[in-house]
Amino acid sequence: MARRALITGITGQDGSYLAEHLLGQGYEVWGLARGQANPRVSRMRRLLADVKVVRGDLLDQGSLISAVERAQPDEVYNLGAISFVPMSWEQAELTAEVTGMGVLRMLEAIRVCSGVSRGGSPNGQIRFYQASSSEMFGQVSETPQTESTAFHPRSPYGVAKAYGHFLTQNYRESYGMYAVSGILFNHESPRRGAEFVTRKVSLGVARIKLGLAGELRLGNLEARRDWGFAGDYVRAMHLMLRAEKPEDYVIGTGRMKSVRELVEAAFTAAGLDWERYVVTDQGLHRPAEVDLLCADPKKARVQLGWEPTMSFEELVAMMVESDLRLLTDGGDPGDGSWP
Ligand code: NAP
Ligand code: GDD
Predict the structure, then answer these.
(1) Where would I find the NAD(P)-binding domain in this sequence (predicted)?
(2) Which of 94, 127, 264, 276 has the fewest C-beta atoms lying within 10 Å of its C-beta?
C-alpha cells in the first residue's frame, strides 16, 4: 500500500517541492490548506493536481485532529508558518500562535489520534517532521553552525521556531514519538515568495532588464546567508523521516554569501551593472539583524547521504531566467505587499 503523507504549508514554496518529491516516490499526498477562498490553494491545485486537500488551520486544534483522522498519514510534515522575519515584529503574537503554538497543536493532534501515552514506543506511529530554522542560531556563537550550536534568536520568528524545535524534541523524549526537526538554512527557488531577498532581487533584475523599473531598493547588503536550492532541501526532509532513528539535522550548503554578492551575481546574470540600479534604504533594515549564517551539514551527509546539487551561482541564474520568462509572458509574480 502507498505511504500517506500530510503536509501543512502546502501552498508555500517548500510544500510544493515536497509534494512533488513525495508523489514521485509513490506517496498519497494530503495538503492542509486554510481559508475558505484562498487563491494560493487554486494555484497549488493547478501545479499539483494529485494532492488531496484537507481544510485546516494551525490556529485551530480541532481542525488538525480532523485532518489527521481524514488523511490517516504515516508521515506529517509541519511546514506551515508565518515565515517572513520582518512580519514577526509587526505581528509578534500571531507569529507565536502560528509558528510556535501551531507545532504544539499539530503534535497534540498526532498524539491524540495515534493514542500515544508517555513511554510509548515509536514503532508504528505517525512520524513527524518540524520545519526548524537557522534563524534560531541568530547571533551566532560559532561558525559554521552544527546541531549542537547554541540558539540566540534575534526575532519573534526565531523565538517561535526555537519553541517548536524544543517541543518536538520534548515529544520525542516524553512520548517516544518519531518526531524530528530539520534545522534548514535559507533555501530558494523560482517559487520563493517575492518578499524574501533572493526573489525580490531576481524579480527586480528582470523588471529593470525589461524596462519595467529603474531601481531596486534593498536593506542591509552586508548580511551573509548560506543559500541553497529548495528542491534539494525537501529531499532531506524525507530522508530524515525514513531514517532508522529520529534525530535532528542541520541542512545547508556550508557556503556563505553576502546580500551584496547575491545582487552582483543576479545583475551579472542579466548583463547589468548592479551599482547603477541598487538603492539602499534604512527603512528596510531590521531592529535586530542576523549578521551571518553558515551550515556545517556533515551529519546529514554522513548519516543520511544528503548532498546539495545546485551551486549559489546556478541558483541565482535560474531565478533570474525564470523571472525574465515570467514577466515576458505576462505572468503574475505574486508580489506580497511588503516593500
Ligand atoms: P512559505 O512559502 O512562506 O509558506 C508558508 C506556508 O504556511 C504557506 O503555505 C501558508 O499558507 C502556511 N500558513 C501560514 N499560516 C498558516 C496557518 N495559520 N495555518 C496553516 N498554514 C499556514 O514558507 P516556505 O519557504 O515554504 O517554508 C516552509 C517552512 O520552513 C516554514 O515553516 C518556514 O518557517 C520554514 N523554513 C523555511 C526556510 C526557507 O529558507 N525557505 C528555512 C528554514 C525554515 P497560506 O497560503 O494559507 O498563507
Ligand atoms: N527580505 C529582504 N528584503 N531582506 C533583505 C532586504 C530586502 O529588501 N535587503 C537586505 N535584506 C537582508 C535581510 O536583512 C536578511 O539579512 C537577508 O537579506 C535575508 O532576508 P530574507 O530573504 O528575508 O530571509 P531571512 O534570512 O530573514 O529568513 C529566511 O530564512 C530563514 C532561515 O534562515 C526565511 O525563509 C525564514 O522563514 C527562514 O527560517
Answers:
(1) 6-319
(2) 276
Q: Collapsing DSSP states into helix, strand and coil, what is residue 51? A: coil
133: annotated active-site residue:
yes
The count of C-alpha atoms lying within 13 angstroms of the C-alpha of 155, restricted to the half-sphere facing its C-beta, is 27
pLDDT at 336: 47
Contacts of 115 (CB under 8 A, 6+ apart): none
pLDDT of 122 reads 44
Query: In angstroms, rounded to a whole number, what is the distance separating the alpha carbons of residues 189 and 318?
Result: 8
Ligand nearest to the CA of 84: 2
Residue 134 DSSP label: G
> Which grid cell is 322?
525564470
Of ligand 1's atoms, which has the minimum distance to the CA of residue 15?
Answer: 26
The set of cell numbers assigned to 215 is 531601481
Query: Does the C-beta of 181 come closer than 6 Å to ligand 2?
Result: no
Mutational test site, ligand 1, from 14, 60, 104, max ligand atoms within 8 Å of CB: 14
* Mean pLDDT per 10-residue segment, the chain (339 residues): 97 97 98 93 91 97 98 98 98 98 98 76 77 98 98 98 98 97 98 97 98 98 98 98 98 98 98 98 97 98 98 98 96 60
179: phi then psi, degrees, rounded to nearest 5: -130, 120
CATH number for the segment(s) 4-187+228-251: 3.40.50.720
Q: Quick check: CB of 135 below 6 Å from ligand 2?
A: yes
Q: Which CATH number fits domain 193-225+256-293+310-335: 2.30.30.700, 3.30.390.30, 2.40.260.10, 3.90.25.10?
A: 3.90.25.10
289 catalytically annotated: no
CA distances from 20 to 28, 45, 48 (A): 11, 12, 7
